[in-house]
Amino acid sequence: MSRNSEFEMERGVAQILNSYGARNVFDFGQLGLTMQTNPWGRVEEIDDVDRERVAKIIQSRIGRYRNRTTADEWENISADDIDLYRPLKIEGRLFPLVFYCENKSCRKVHTATEPGYLPSNGQCRACGESITQLPFVNVCTCGRLEDASPNRGCSQHGFDDIRLNKRASEPAMWRYECNKCGDTVDVLSSSCGVCNGMQGPLPTASSRIFYSEKAVEVDIPYIGDQAEDIPKDESWAHVLMAAHLGLADLESNTIENLATTEGMVDKYQKWVNRLGEEDAQEMFDDMDQDVHGRETLVAETEHITPPDTEGDVEEGTRALAYSNIAHQLFTFQRSTNGYEGDMDDLKDTRHPIPKSLSHFLQDSDFRERHPQSGRYRPQLTASHIRQAWIVDQFPLLNILYGYTRADSQSNKVDLRSFPHPRERATTPIFADRTPSEAIIFEIDRTAIINWLEANNVITAEQRPDTSDEAALKEWFLNNIATTELDNPFTPIEHDITRWVYRLLHSLSHCLLARAGEQCGLATSSLSERIFPVIPAIAVYAASTENFALGSMFTLFKTRLHPWVSDARDLADQCLIDATCRENPAGAACDACLHIEETSCEAINHHLDRRIVRSKSDIVGFWDEGISNGIPDDISQL
Questions:
Q1: How far is CA 465 from CA 323, 454, 469, in A?
Q2: CB 3.0–4.6 Å: which of 140, 310, 350, 616 could bond 192 by disulfide?
Q3: How confident is the model at residue 2 (pLDDT cuts 50, 70, 90)?
Q4: Distance CA 214, CA 212 (A)
Q5: How many other β-carbons are positioned within 10 Å of the β-carbon of residue 231?
Q6: Banded model confidence at residue 543, pLDDT cuts 50, 70, 90
Q7: How far apart are CA 561 and CA 568, in angstroms?
Q8: What is the pLDDT of residue 566?
Q9: Are the C-beta atoms of residues 530 and 428 closer than 8 Å to each other?
Q10: In the predicted model, is pLDDT for residue 133 greater than 60?
Q11: Best CA proximity match to 212, nearest among 486, 9, 434, 25
Q12: 406 phi-psi bin (left φ>0, alpha ψ -120 to 50, beta other)
């Protein structure tokens, strides 16, 4: 592409990540030509992202792809193997470099390896008429892309004078012919030398030419000068467990400070053993001595051992389990309670700003402006939703880690990486941060325990004390194997994890599928995050541009009751029941719970309406027999 500003296009970063990945083909409408994006070179490095987290996200997705020719490239990819960049500017080049004469009696073919070798005046070298681009390509599931130029010339006259015979309307029937002897020399389609699976000719506007392989992660930045010193091992998860259980003092400390302060565990334990925890803490307070820190919080929570960290598990699995738990707890903590330190420390960081439903319902002005809000709390309580928050500046990290061609089903294609903008041996990952809006629902833990017992997933002896909120929270931390959720294509072997995740995922899809009718956003523009160790659901606007949509706020403040009511109706029936409901793999189909795969964190796996509203031998979560522990007084929430 010329560097002349006349040929520049204004595009947002999110749009570039989605549609202009390196080696994609795009329509340059100003000139009526097709272009191909060059390898991205104008980028800035992103160095304040949790690279280990990004590497684990990619690792969890590699198993989805066939990767017949690229397995070595992606196997065992780690944080040290990736570099993260934000694109600043992209450039393109003319592609395909195959032109033919528009004169029907001529049709001479002009091909070149560089644009400069084509007729500079845009006129046929044989007859002087205008030439036009042949907008067709061939693609392979291994990622190969070729133009539709003739691969071989005439056996007698080579490529001296090749003409295009458009003898039929279907481009697959077009032929290249030698103008000197009349022999047919080639067709527009070709075969892949590696896979023998080339598809084409495809129009350059075909969506099968390029599929951007992306992921979205919630990316809440750490705050404070010592944020870089936060340990990334299991102690970080234990600090967050302590904060979640109410064991950490977050009135005078931030989570980051507690994680980077070692603490005086020996002194603390000595006086706890001598005086008991309450009296020991009172003594430390009287002495104005803070003994708390990472080591004391680890000591208080080290008895919490998730199922995928126990026994003879691999160290990598154990580390991933604690990393998953830490990410869920930190995201939930900051997205529902906000930053606990000095607000001036936030400066221009992208930090969530949450407000709970209780906050609005306790505001008399809000209740007066929105009289329908009187129905919100009864509806949520009947649906076993303990609390809800609207979250502004919900920070998302959009990640572009590769591309595929020829087929949208990942298990039939090879994942290709992009050329490295610094020509390093590592794999480049491109990313952009996007603030969005989210609604978070905390599901009542007592109701889930009652529902698990009603379905004989747990026994009465396995129940925690449901009158003790800390014991309930601890039970979920101890009984969810998060590592089994990383790959949606593999079955969830752990019973409790499978039941809890399928429940939360099905509830989320009931809400997602009915949100658009209330807020005006297409379902494909919404997405979800499931936090089974909490347990909670986040529904957020997957904005494709950096602007606040506002629709989620409107939905939360004005349409919460009909939204949840519609979600309950969706769980109850499907247009193609009883066929859908009797599916042994799960009552979920395109007519009810299935949504755009890009909006679903599990590619529409692990869904079942029957466990939400039952008409079978399964007890449904929203069935009348399931009770919850939500207090009548909302000030207690």
A1: 27, 16, 8
A2: 140
A3: very low
A4: 6
A5: 12
A6: low
A7: 11
A8: 95
A9: no
A10: yes
A11: 25
A12: left
* Secondary structure element (H or E) that encloses residue 28, with its range: strand 25-28
Q: Which two structure tokens, joined as six digits, stand for 26?
A: 């795009």
Q: Look-up: residue for tokens 């992208």?
A: 350
Contact status, residue 18 vs residue 403, Cβ threshold 8 Å: no
First to last CA, the chain: 59
Instruction: Give how far the C-alpha of residue 625 lies from the chain's centroid of Cα atoms, to the nearest Å.
Output: 35
pLDDT at position 526 over 60: yes
* φ and ψ of 273, to 5 deg: -65, -35
Q: Which two tokens stand for residue 79?
A: 């944080």
The letter for the amino acid at 184 is T
C-beta of residue 67 within 8 angstroms of C-beta of residue 105: no
pLDDT over 50 at 546, yes or no = no
| Closest to 139 (Cα-Cα) out of 23, 29, 1 | 23
Closest CA to 490 of 367, 605, 354: 605
Task: Name residue 385's amino acid.
Answer: I
DSSP 415-439: -BPPPPTT--SSEEEEEEEEEEEEE
* Distance, CA of 507 to CA of 530 (rounded, Å): 10
State the burial class of residue 463 (Cβ atoms within 10 Å of its Cβ: 0-12, 13-18, 19+). middle
Distances (CA, A) of 600 to 75, 154, 245, 525, 631: 25, 52, 29, 11, 32
Contacts of 6 (CB under 8 A, 6+ apart): none
Report which of 437, 577, 583, 601 is spatially closest to residue 506, judged by C-alpha positions: 601
Going along 459-605, which residue ranges are E strands? 526-531, 536-541
Token code pair at residue 124: 């046929």
Alpha-carbon gap, residue 637 to 634, rounded angstroms? 5
Q: Do the Cβ atoms of 480 and 474 come closer than 8 Å?
A: no
Residue of 631, 611, 637, 608 lying closest to 623 (CA atoms): 611
